[in-house]
Amino acid sequence: MLKPNQLSHKTILFIMTLVVIVVGIGFRSIEQIKTLWLNQFRSHYIVFTSTRDGNYEVYSMNSNGSELSRLTNDPADDYNPSISPDGLKIAFTSHRDGNYEIYIMDFDGSNQTRITNAVGGNSFATWSPNGEQIVFTSWRDEGDAEIYLMNADGTDQKNLRKCLKSYAGANLRSISLIIAT
User: Fold this and answer.
1) Is the full-model pTM beyond 0.90?
2) 98 within domain boundaries
3) In terms of domains, do 101 and 23 share one?
4) Number of domain units in the chain
């Protein structure tokens, strides 16, 4: 085991800085440190839709254009990706089941799961700032586009026009900020 006098000044400074950061931020677990690191890592990535392989698919890449990765691969269109605030999930729209529906997947494209199922179609998912809810547009009510809110797992879908009549003209980000606070 090394004694303090055997460590370089840079090593001691690095260890002390790390301890101050960990204690100062108030981490309670290694999972919180891992999540912070993943969020920082993923903040350098963008997700987008492209037809470069023949139809609309969801891709990710580093913000400098490197590490291009195709996240969806379905004959139907997949588009409108939105990264969750914690960087772990991506919501997107797909027509793979014959109707436009919202799906979520892990950041690497795995575990693609449909979370809406409505006759009129659903699209334009936007995460709430805390990542617990998703705001989206749905055409299920008499064919008119309406703003809906649901839990991130697809449960408890609510028409916000009916719930929040006073916010009728607000955009999706405004609604998600209102709901999250």
Assistant:
1) no
2) yes
3) no
4) 2
Q: pLDDT tens across 105-141, in order?
A: 999 999 999 999 988 899 999 999 889 999 999 998 7
If phi > 0 it is left, if psi is from -120 to 50 it is alpha, else beta; for residue 10 that is alpha
Contacts of 153 by beta carbon, 8 Å cutoff, 6+ apart: 115
- Ranges assigned E (strand) in the chain: 45-50, 57-62, 69-70, 78-83, 89-94, 101-106, 113-114, 122-127, 133-141, 144-151, 158-159
Residue 21 domain boundaries: 9-43
Strand order in the sheet with 89-94: 78-83, 89-94, 101-106, 113-114
Top-confidence residue, 144 or 4: 144
Judge if 51 and 70 occupy the same domain.
Answer: yes
Based on the domain organization, do 77 and 164 belong to the same domain?
A: yes
Has residue 125 been placed in a domain? yes
Give 63-86 pLDDT, tens digit per residue.
888 889 999 999 999 999 999 988
